[in-house]
Amino acid sequence: MLFSINDLTFGYDDVIVLSSLNLVMEDGDRIGLIGANGVGKTTLLRLIMGELIADKGNIARKNGLRVAMLRQKDELDSTRTVWQEMQSVFADVHAAIDQMRALEVALSCAEEGSLEYRRLVAEHDRLDRLVAAEEGYQADVRIRTVLSGMGFGAHHDTPISQMSGGEKTRLALCKLLLARLDLLILDEPTNHLDADTLEWLEEYLNGYKGGLLIVSHDRYFLDHVTKKTWDMEGLDVREYRASYSRSRAIKEELVAAQLKLYNKQQEQVADMLDYVQRNIVRATTSKSAKSRLHRIEGMDLVEKPITYTKPPIFRLQAEGESNRDVLKVTELPLVVGDKTLIPSLSFSLNKGERLAIVGPNGVGKSTLIKTLLGMLNATTDRYNPLPNPSGSACGGFPRVRHVNGHIRYGLNLSIGYYDQENLNLSLHNSVLAEMWYRFPSMTQTLARTILGNLLFTAEDMDKTVGELSGGERAKLGFAILIGEKNNLLFLDEPTNHLDLAAREALETGLKNYPGTVVFVSHDRYFVNAVATRVLSLSPEGAESIEGNYDSYLRWRERMRAKASANPQKDEAPAPVKERSGYKSKEDKRREAKRREQIARIEHELAALDDKIAELNQQLSNTTDYMLCGQLADALGKAQEEQDRLFLELEEWENS
Asked: Which of 54, 99, 163, 441 is 20 to 30 A from residue 653's alpha carbon, by CA?
């Protein structure tokens, strides 16, 4: 057992957050903690960490429990480089190794077999076991593995002070992954990670030896990593022995079954009460009526199931039908300032499609949307990127024909745009005034209905936009889109700031939307649920794959399998090839050599891993000091060779 929560109650001032809570986390558990925004997930984590004290009850922790939590605010030493910060995780190991080297010097001067000699050998053995238990002999390998997987492979010498907030959060996660912990608590670990890094992290955590308690809005991540779910509702937490998706299904089944029992019992009670009212005063049936009253009083009444989280309703509509051909992009260079992100990309969009744009961070996904809208790189007077006369800066672009020579729109389009930062909202307007500013002719009843469907209360509608939370601003942005009734939507990270219930409601709204959608999202579960086609961006161009995110993953695996089977052929045809570019024979020859060298180095590294593991095993099993020294020398040389190969591998990968 890692910890147990026993009859715990906690609140702030007069507001109770958790009441009579009982939970147990066992060794090796992988638990996803879910619940609506503001329900108390962070409070529970802080209680588990010992940062808050329960008003009633307690949390019993395993003796010597080694636990750490990833926070959205980094706790790194900004005076260090990336490599130095990772090395700090192994400070105790390095100290032990230094002590061992000092002991070896002392042993060379001590008389073999003497009491001092035996004491030095015993201490050396103790330190050796400590280093081996902490996997200290593989510290550098582990650091390189984690840094490479998390996207820092080429940034070992980068000063932390030069990093962005998102990069620091990723680096803080690297430190926690390297530490040997009994329990790792992760609060939104998937923020700032692209798809490839997420997949690496999922695989790494699936092999993690300690327990995991994860708070995340990334349902795809929860499904791939967790085995249990703690669902916070009201003042309680219900445990499901299943990952996120299965726990949702189980919960729905339980609620449906309880509702069926409740309704059946209510019908029985109503029938008996009706009989009592009709027969209680009649002498011949009074006894029977009283008997039914006693039965009602003695019944164990089934409670009506309560749904604490009311989901919002995204009722997206489209006025006017577009032509079948909505958008045609031909050999478009994707450019930001004087930097070319993608030399050329081409794709098309048809009426009714929901196109998801995916790709690594920095490849230009949001830039592509802004370029398509004419917010960047517009070169024709035939396109006006300003809002329509309704005044809506969230969308409502006029009918368009061209943005530049590479982008051609179809006819009868009205275009809406959702900005992930919601920078288009006026912070000084009230929520209701912001709606009326966009839609002067909209009735108050309709405006309040749209906002009410998105869970704005009458009190919320009188707040200024500046007072709203991130999730509330996101829903106000969608309220404006709902009012516009555009038939083509561009959505940039629409699930940011939305809790799980709101994300699922948005999925339903988009699947029922009759228009056409282009969207960028890091939420793979959302992409899987909504997309009918995926556009995969890379520095070389764009590949179009029919289907959802699972279809995209299957396509990518096929491409990787082909590349592995034909390492000297630089070809990876897509189901729909919409990419331009030219590679000379010399380029292909260099690429083939690069792949050949990478394969050779990876083969040599695999052999070295086996050799190092064998040497460590021999070191842990021997008490012969002379043999210990020989094995240590051999291990040192193997690790030096490993370091050299890693450097060579980085050079070839970056060439």
From this structure: 163
What pTM did the predictor assign?
0.72
Task: Count CB neighbours of 101 within 10 A.
Answer: 11
Distance CA 211, CA 186 (A): 11
Residues 6 or more apart from 234 whose CB is under 8 A from it?
A: 306, 308
Condensed to tens digits (0 to 9), the pLDDT of residues 331-347 reads 999 998 888 999 999 99
Which of 412, 381, 383, 414 shows the shortest CA–CA distance to 397?
Answer: 414
Sign of the Cα pseudo-torsion (137, 138, 140, 146, in order): negative
In angstroms, the CA 271 to CA 279 distance is 12
- Compute CA distances 234 → 56, 151, 310, 406, whole Å: 18, 39, 12, 53
Q: Which CA distances in Å does 111 have to 90, 105, 138, 629?
A: 33, 12, 32, 17
337-376: pLDDT as tens digits: 888 999 999 999 999 999 999 998 888 999 999 999 988 8
Residue in the block written with tokens 């558990």 = 29
Q: What letter represents residue 560's amino acid?
A: R
Alpha helices in 150-243 (DSSP H): 165-178, 195-206, 219-225
182-197 mean pLDDT: 88
